[in-house]
Amino acid sequence: MGAREESQALHLRARAFVRAFEEGRASPEPYDALASDLVRFQARYVAGYKNLVAARGLDPASISRAAQAPAVPTDAFKVARVSAFPEEETPITFRTSGTTVGRRGQHPFRDASTYDAAAIAFARSTLLRGWPERVHVLVVGPSAADLPDSSLCHMNDAFVGVFGLPGDGDVFFLRDGVLDLAALDETVARILVTGDAPVLLLATALACVHLLDVVGDAGFRLPTGSRVMQTGGFKGTSREVEPSVLRRDLARALCIPEDDIIGEYGMTELSSQFYEARGGGTYLEPPWARIVPVDPVTLEPVEEGAAGIARIEDLMNVDSAFAVLAADRVRRVPGGFELLGRMPGAPPRGCSLTVDEILGR
């Protein structure tokens, strides 16, 4: 079996986890079984990952648990191609947000259908929990047509297409970095008159700050029962607002409870997302992804309840890296995990050493 055939079989197994979740059934196979097969596949066909496994002295055939898989730091996606397929066989590549310095991370996809299936299934069970199948989905951000290499724009487009009401027309209100408040105001006013469904407003934290700047002290009332998905931070920008302050001010401006502002945690290097439970603070995992806090030097799991950097395991990352290391501090809590902010300063030593191993240094 070649790389393409093996990849297709693994994608089918990954999507079976999603289907079982949607149908309320148990996962179709043990998590460790698919994780181990993903690691073996990636060790064969992802050159940098093959280097990493060899540097750790691991025999891929001996791996039987997800915890044994070496994790790829997000910085590696900036300096190496983390993909089981050459560029000519990868029709879509997501890239991290551009900043004034440094390279952009790249995550190539040969098949985005697994990404889409997982994103839609978990969003339906969290963001849209208790709602009708179709609502008004409005986006304070660009469309995928404007930013085709943005995983967030790709996901937002998918949500508009699957969850949105078809009669809403153009629902993207950020063009060339400028918020079209007049168009957003007109759309919300029309929705308030019909009163047929709530609004799901999708926005980054920085877009929320811009929205608050434009609205000022005036209110911008959303229909009763509406929700906001807020994602991302302020990395690479000159603006930063304390999360609790942003949540409070956004709730006041939009005339909704703070509990209806739901944080999303995701990144270009992943194929899965995590959402806050109502009430905020605790992030939930789908059954196909896990967050493990690890020591920033040894990369070993920390004690229960202690903070560490995020090792993220994602069964939907079929053709890249099953396990990813992020410089985000996290802590396990009952039912999920807490986000504690970015690690300050340079990348953690364990991550830097891992990048060197991937590059074969």
Describe what you observe in this structure.
The protein is α/β, with parallel strands linked by helices and 361 residues long. It has ten helices and 15 strands. The protein has helices spanning 3-22, 31-45, 47-55, 76-79, 113-126, 151-163, 181-194, 205-215, 243-254, 349-358, and strands at residues 72-73, 92-95, 106-109, 136-140, 174-175, 178-179, 199-204, 227-231, 261-265, 274-276, 283-284, 289-294, 307-314, 323-333, 336-342. The strands form four sheets. A six-stranded mixed beta sheet has the order 4-7-8-9-10-11, sandwiched between helices. Strands 1, 12, 13, 14 and 15 form a five-stranded mixed beta sheet that branches. A two-stranded antiparallel ribbon has the order 2-3. Helix 1 (3-22) runs parallel beside helix 5 and helix 8 crosses helix 9. The longest helix has 20 residues, at 3-22. The chain is globular. 43% of the residues are buried.
Summarize the structure.
The protein is α/β, with parallel strands linked by helices and 361 residues long. It has ten helices and 15 strands.
